[in-house]
Amino acid sequence: EEQESPFLPLKGKRVVVTAGPTRERVDPVRFFTNFSTGKMGYAFARKAKELGAEVTLISGPVSISEPLGVKVIQTESAHDMYEAVMKELPQSDIVIKTAAVADYRPATPLDQKMKKKEGSLSIEMERTTDILGEIGKAKTNQFVVGFAAETTEPITYAKQKLIKKNANAIVVNNVSEAGAGFGTDTNIVTYINGSGLEWNLPLQSKEDVAYQILIQVANELKDGHT
Ligand code: CTP
Ligand code: CA
Questions:
Q1: What is the pLDDT of residue 223?
Q2: Which of 30, 72, 96, 218 counts the highest number of beta carbons within 10 A?
Q3: Pocket probe mutation, ligand 1, options 18, 101, 162, max atoms within 8 Å of Cβ
Q4: What angle do CA 154, 159, 163 make, to 5 degrees?
Q5: Residue 162 CB less than 6 A away from ligand 1
Q6: DNA/pantothenate metabolism flavoprotein C-terminal domain location, by residue (predicted)?
Q7: What is the pLDDT of residues 132-191, one digit of tens each?
Q8: Is 34 a catalytic residue?
Q9: Structural domain boundaries of the chain?
Q10: pTM, rounded to two decimals
Q11: So what's the ipTM on this one?
Q12: What are phi and psi of 102, to 5 degrees?
């Protein structure tokens, strides 16, 4: 009997996925973070593995179990994630940047627990490194997919991010739509690439979103992207 050959469009490809939130410490017991759960990124890591890729998952703190057969690098802050990503970049073919990276961090994190005082509190914040922006500057042949979470004018902002960060594609989700964004098992996204494609993916599981986008990226790589 003839054996059906597996569908492995990412065979031989090295895929790096970043997922989850970052934590930016205020003191030893407190941090700034966001609502990212890592579901979208972990779905990408699992699907890329199923499609034949060698996968490295760079993860912020989440409570999802590590996908089998995937190299997982655990990180905490935006700075940790930046260092891990830049180390993996030279030996990668595809970079999928789903992580919700903090834009700011406390300028002077404290070594001792902060004690409360009368009155209000201000914490001075400074910018973190834009990891996707740095990838955009450093990349050679890698196909880089950025993400954008927007609450207004998703397409306009996504197009600006595509150009500004020199990404090959941006996947944008309007986080104020029902069934999209943080913590849900489903997503509604638009995939935008440098050739002007604006592809709307209707409401579906994050697994299916990951699958469809990975097939698209595999095809764009095959056709020779710039
Ligand atoms: N990103 C990153 N490093 C940061 C901030 C964002 O790599 N310090 C990446 C995210 O992982 C995502 C993309 O940039 O893939 C877009 O993130 P988003 O927060 O939507 O855009 P920003 O450029 O941070 O702009 P803003 O938050 O002002 O909309
Ligand atoms: Ca941001």
A1: 81
A2: 96
A3: 101
A4: 145
A5: no
A6: 10-219
A7: 999 999 999 999 999 998 989 999 999 999 999 999 999 998 888 888 888 889 999 999
A8: yes
A9: 14-106+127-222
A10: 0.95
A11: 0.98
A12: -60, 140
Neighbours of 7 (CB within 10 A): 11
Mention the CATH class of domain 14-106+127-222.
alpha beta
The CA-based angle 67-70-71, given to 5 degrees, is 120
Q: Which helix (H) or strand (E) holds 204?
A: strand 198-205
Is 147 labelled as part of a ligand binding site?
Answer: yes
- Residue 226's pLDDT is 54
Strand pairing report for 143-150 and 125-127: unpaired
Which string of DSSP letters, residue by residue, matches 176-191?
TSTT-STT-SEEEEEE
> What's phi and psi for 51, nearest 5 deg?
-90, 10
Q: Which portions of the chain are predicted below pLDDT 70?
A: 1, 226
DSSP calls for 42-111: HHHHHHHHHTT-EEEEEE-S-SSPPPTT-EEEE--SHHHHHHHHHHHGGG-SEEEE--B--SEEESS--S
The whole-angstrom separation of Cα 200 and Cα 61 is 30
Tokens of 13: 């490809």
